[in-house]
Each structure stands twice: as structure tokens, then as C-alpha cells.
Amino acid sequence: MNYNVNEKGYYGEFGGAYIPEMLYPNVEELRQNYLKVMAEPEFQKEFDQLLKDYVGRPSPLYFAKRLSEKYNTKIYLKREDLNHTGAHKINNTIGQILMAKRLGKHRIIAETGAGQHGVATATVCALMGLECIVYMGEIDIARQAPNVARMKMLGATVVPALSGSRTLKDATNEAIRDWINNPVNTHYIIGSAIGPHPYPDMVTKFQSVISEEIKWQLKEHEGRENPDYVVACIGGGSNAAGTYYHYLHEDDVNIIAVEAAGLGVDSGESAATSVLGKEGIIHGCKTLLMQTNDGQITEPYSISAGLDYPGVGPMHAHLCKTGRAEFMAITDDDAMKAGLKLCELEGIIPAIESSHALAIFEQKTFKPDDIVVMSLSGRGDKDLNTYINYFNL
Amino acid sequence: MNRINKKLKEDKKLLSIYFTAGYPNINDTVSIIQDLEKNGIDMIEIGLPFSDPLADGPTIQASSTQALKNGMTSEVLFNQLKDIRQSVQIPLIIMGYFNPMFQYGVEAFCKKCQEIGIDGLIIPDLPVDVYHEKYQAIFEKYGLINVFLITPQTSDERIRYIDSISNGFIYMVSSASTTGAKVGFGEEQTKYFERIGNMNLNNPQIIGFGISNNQTFTQATQYAKGAIIGSAFVKHVTNQGINTLDKFVNSVLNND
Lengths: 393, 256
Prior knowledge:
The structure holds two protein chains of two kinds.
Chain A: E1 10-11, E2 14-15, H1 24-39, H2 41-55, E3 61-63, H3 65-71, E4 74-79, H4 89-102, E5 107-112, H5 116-128, E6 131-137, H6 138-143, H7 145-153, E7 157-161, H8 168-181, E8 186-189, H9 199-207, H10 209-222, E9 229-233, H11 238-244, E10 254-262, H12 273-276, E11 278-282, E12 285-289, H13 314-322, E13 325-331, H14 332-346, H15 352-358, E14 371-376, H16 384-391
Parallel strand pairs in A: 4-14, 5-6, 5-8, 6-7, 9-10, 9-14, 10-13
Antiparallel strand pairs in A: 1-2, 3-4, 11-12
Chain B: H1 3-9, E1 14-20, H2 29-38, E2 43-48, H3 58-69, H4 74-80, E3 92-96, H5 98-104, H6 106-116, E4 120-122, H7 128-141, E5 145-150, H8 156-165, E6 170-173, H9 187-197, E7 205-208, H10 214-223, E8 226-229, H11 231-240, H12 245-254
Parallel strand pairs in B: 1-2, 1-8, 2-3, 3-4, 4-5, 5-6, 6-7, 7-8
Function (chain B): The alpha subunit is responsible for the aldol cleavage of indoleglycerol phosphate to indole and glyceraldehyde 3-phosphate.
Pfam family, one (chain B): Trp_syntA
Organism (chain B): Flavivirga jejuensis
């Protein structure tokens, strides 16, 4: 079984480029060039250098001793939270800003939900001196004020998305509409492993540095490259895609994907796409999608803004359908408790997205000698208000 | 012969109108269609609303959101249209995004269209190659014409390819934009219209996006077989309701 994208842009039956003709020249230009550009030694060198000197890679692979003792297994945390700007998002924005420069684009647009991808995009635009416009739902702007301020300090223009539910899905629609209206000079930096081909593959490849490092780091710790499990939380799925990438075809490595169950998978307030979604088309790709019987896209819910998306990247839809990955769903409450537990046991305040992944240890029992590598996709600074309100701190 | 092909053979410039089904009220669909035909419109695009219309600007987005709130679905629309051919003769096209059709089942959707007397479909986010590989045979089985878009950025090679797959008309998007974003044409557009005109394509072209009144209709039809008005019509309905459609149509056709 092949879990990578095929030459037509599909993962099994998922993926493709379901875009209006107005976007075709942009997406086609990218499709024809992205692999060529990424293979250029100069590009590689610049990308690696920035990841090292600017982002602070490699991020540590940390053996979480007290957490391991509590759950009687061996848990390693891949510390993406220690990256510049506080999450894995910057791996992709560094790659895509270099791509945009190679393609001669000088205007950058992006969508953002919680603001992490917006901040990561604004950051690299400041670094490269490029114009940056970030679309963000009006509701998210109100509840993520610190990240809005960060983007502004970094020189970005934050445009409120006023349509639909005024959250991430609508911000993505607005960014796509901007791209339709600015077809020549603009590059759209999509923040997750979604969108029309080649985006899911390109984003996955930029994020694959995560599993590339895990391999040699785990070898140093344990004398072997392959853990028994790799675990990551999934919204659109970019940190998960990067965490799994080099293990997709390693049969001895189990893959676990953790979705947000919100108030409960059957509560009507959930973002567990693998359970609640059906095959459909969102933001340019065929994937699993939460929708009505009539094919209207529905509103997801999660306490975590980063997992609050009605679809999932096409690669993950394929991993789900083929059974290559085990999908688990974690509620708001269980995620919040797991986040606090990590603070107490390891002195690390995780992003609420990552807390969802941490919560699986309460639900699933691992063997004492199992090696479980979990992506700690981001740090919890941005979520402080949510933690304060939830725990009455 | 399909009503679209027959209409395209008429010796006149065509005016086509887009409206959002289920807007402003859920049951306005049939009366809008009848009224437009009575006032001399040549062809109608019935918009099947979608929650996330990527290619549309604020006007059509808002009408779609309202139509969905009003309860519009594929099934409701088909029910409203089931007797439409008893009163309406002009070509009818359903325009909508792919996901609702995909959920309905592409073949079931096409079959229903044929039963009702729908002549064609415009699906902006169904790529030409996917249509060609997976759905063209189904569309043809049910006698439906699928209409593709081209834009000023579409290469000549791709236009030739689209022309070869098309069997009705080509929807010429006047400028790189979402619907309702720009009004009127500049030099850039007229150059593009001329370029396409000189390609001698097999399928006639109808220009859409940026057409709102007699002046832009006249300008567009200098270069093409016809023109499509969408956002400007939806705006008219929003502001003045559905009882003065004659005024709108006359102002476009007769400049009064």
C-alpha cells in the first residue's frame, strides 16, 4: 500500500484539486514547480539553515520520565513547542516563503484560526520583507487578541472574515477568494495539510523534518529508529503529517491520530471528522468532511481552535480509510486534564491541541517496554486564558 | 437537440440571468423563472446554494446563506421545478458547487435534471479533467451540457482543451475575480475578448462577471454570443424584491 501522494495528486481516493478555473493557473504553476524547487541544493541549504539558526531546530526528543512512570510505558515528546513562534507551524511557513520567493511572488496571504499559523506567516514575511495579509474569522479575532497583536507587530494586515460562521473555515474561504482576485503576484501559504494538490504534499514534506529528526534522535536514545507508536493530534493534520511521514511505510510502527471530540462525539458539538465525516469536497480537495445530508459543510466544535476544522487532510483520510492509522477522539474535558497533568509531572505547559494527544494515555494501555513518540505540537502560552477560565486559576 | 444548442443558433445576442434558488423566499424559484422568461430573458442559471461558495463575492454569498436558512436543498429545488416545463420553454441551467451534487449522487442528480427538463450544469469547482475522466459519460447519458469557465489567465492550450470537451458554450469570466467584484471592462478585458474571438473556437462564448447594465451588456456582446448577469440581479432582488424584474430586464436590454 502506498500512503504517499500519487502523480495525479491523490492519496487513494482522496485529494485532487477541486478548484474553480480562476485558481487553475496559480495551482498549476505551483504543481509544476514545487518538487523541482524543493530538490534544488540552494533551496535545501537555505531551508535547513533557517530551520537551524532561526527556528532553533532540531527540536529535542525528550524522554518524559515521570509521565512514563505514571502510565508505565516509555513516552518521548517531540518538542515542537520549543520552536520559534511556539509551534510546528513555522516549519511550513519557512518552506513556503522560500518557495514563494523562487516563484517571484511578493504578496503573501494566509488563513488562520487560533492565530498560530498567522503569526508564523507574519514572522517569515517580516524576515523576508514581503507584504503579508492574514484572513481570520471575526469571532477568532475577538477571542485570540494576543495573536492578532503579534501579527500586527510583525507588520501583517489582519483582515476579518465576516462570512459564514466567521471562524477558520470562513477565513480559508476568504483567503481563497483573495487569491482568485490576485492571480499573478500572490502566493497563498496554506497552514495545514489540506487544500488542492500540491498543497497537502508540499506542507507534509516541509513538516516531515519532524519525523526525520525523530529517527536519528530515537536511535541515539534507544539504539533504534522506529518507535512502537507515533502519536499526534489532528485538525487539518500538518503536525501529524510531519510526525508520521518517515514512518508511513514502516510496518512495525503503529500510527495514532487524535481528533477533538469536543463535548462528545455524539453531542452535536464535536470536530471528530473521522467518525462524523463523509467523503466530500472542502477547500479544493476530496477528503472526509463534516456535512449535512444535502452536502452543506457543517460547523465543528472544539475547545481547541487549532482542531476546530470540519475536514481533515486527504492523506489522513486515506490513513483512516485503509486502517493504517488508529483514530481516537478526545473530549474537551479529558484534553484539559491531560494538559494540566503534563504541567504537574514534566513542567511543560502544552497547547490545548497537543493536550488532546496526551489524553490518550488515560484511554489506551501501552506495554511497559513500548516506545511511544508523541508530537508536542505547540506550547500553551496562547491558551492561557482558556486554561484560566477552565480551571478557575 | 438540447434547448441550449437551439438557443445558441438563434440570430441574436443572448442575455442570461443567474439567481439564487430559495432567495429571497424559499418559494420564489418558479415565479422568478416564469417572470424572467416573460420579460425576454434567453436563458436562466438557477443557483443551487452552497455553504462555502469559494468563487462568489459578498452578494451571492449572502443570498446563498439566506436561501439555506430558508431551507433550500437539492431535493427541495427538484420538487419546486418538477412541473417547470409546463410553463417555461427557455434553456435552464443549474449552477452550483460540486459537493451538494456529489452527496446527492452525480448520476441521481443528472437523472433528476433530465426528468425535470434541465438542459445543463455549471459547476465551478469540478475540474475539467475530473469531469472528463469520471462524469462526462453520465452527463451525456442524461442529455446534459456541462459548461466550463475560462479566465484571462487561461492559456490558449487549455482553452483549446476546454473547447474540445465542451458541447454548448464556454463561460468566459471577464476578469480574474470572484463574482460581483468588478464592474465594467477596461482595455485589458477587451484585449482578452478579442484574443478569444480570434481563436475561432467550436463553442460560442458567453461572457460573465462584471456585467450589470445596458452599457456592459452591449460591450460584452460585441465580442461574444451573449452575456450573463448574476450579482447585479441578486442585488436588485435584495433591494426591490421580485415584483419589478421587468424593470431590471428592460433596463439591461433597452437602456431605459
